[in-house]
Automatic annotation (TrEMBL):
The lineage of its organism: Bacteria, Pseudomonadati, Pseudomonadota, Alphaproteobacteria, Sphingomonadales. Residues 138-197 form the Hda lid domain. InterPro entries: Hda_lid, P-loop_NTPase. It comes from the Bacteria. This is Chromosomal replication initiator DnaA.
Length: 206
């Protein structure tokens, strides 16, 4: 898989972690990426990160907290409120930021603890958006590369244009195509990919 400059997750002068090589920077996640780069400007030493599942939100958050010695709470909107409350306070005392991953941003959270509610209200939030066409192609390409496979350019465009455009579907589509190609002993070509996705009901025959 060829990587352009915009596909490098974090500046090269930062220590690299394993997750960096898997986080593809694009327009849908650029705002979140820049938010973490400028964490010293946050009003409090905590933030909330939202975005679709499989969007790389956990990779981005883990990479960040590993660098700065922070703490990560996944599914924070469903976590124990006392735990989140004490973690938030500890982040302010230590200066080591807390990252909370959630499916939605406040005020969608149902917070019973008043002291936590006031703290979450002043916590900045950032989000990763749905993939655009470019990022969708890059995600598909990455998942094929993980399997040691090269997908032809025209087949890559076909997949990104025909499947439902979300991170989870892109990953599942690659798995469907790979399994079909193995079962049929078929070359990874546009006709093979079309048949695999049609058989799986992931695209229409139109």
């Amino acid at each position: 898989m060829n990587r352009g400059a915009d596909q490098i997750a974090l500046p090269l002068d930062w220590p690299q972690t394993q997750g960096d090589t898997r986080f593809i920077l694009g327009e849908p996640n650029r705002e979140a990426f820049e938010h973490f780069r400028k964490w010293s400007m946050w009003p409090v030493k905590a933030t909330i990160l939202t975005g679709p599942r499989r969007s790389g939100r956990s990779l981005l958050a883990r990479s960040f907290v590993e660098r700065v010695g922070g703490r990560l709470i996944d599914q924070a909107d469903r976590a124990d409120e006392e735990e989140v409350f004490h973690a938030w306070n500890a982040a302010q005392d230590s200066g080591r930021p807390l990252v909370m991953i959630a499916d939605s941003v406040p005020p969608d959270w149902d917070i019973a603890l008043p002291d936590l509610r006031t703290r979450i209200a002043v916590t900045p939030a950032t989000t990763i958006g749905p993939p655009d066409d470019t990022l969708c192609q890059q995600v598909i390409d990455l998942h094929f590369a993980d399997r040691g496979l090269h997908i032809p350019r025209e087949a890559l465009r076909f997949m990104s244009e025909r499947i439902e455009r979300d991170y989870w579907t892109a990953e599942r589509a690659v798995e469907v195509v790979d399994r079909y190609a193995i079962a049929e002993r078929a070359r990874l070509s546009l006709p093979t990919i079309r048949r695999a996705l049609l058989d799986a009901g992931m695209i229409s025959s139109d």
